[in-house]
Amino acid sequence: xxxxxRVVKKTYxxxxxxxxxxxxxxxxxxxxxATVDPVGxxxxxxxxxxxxxxxxxxxxxRPVLDYDEIGGDDA
Length: 75
What we know:
37% strand, globular, 21% helix
């Protein structure tokens, strides 16, 4: 199972929000699961923090996923 960071759209209490989530893919490359809550950028040192930041920027360049369509809640 592979994963990456993706921007995910969720509706909560009538409000639509976007956040960066970890998204996991099935064997065919389709989004299968997503973290319930958005994830933050953390690292052990400045180099790791920069690398994570680049992964987040890549997520912003990809299409937004809808949480309800990818079976979120399992990761």
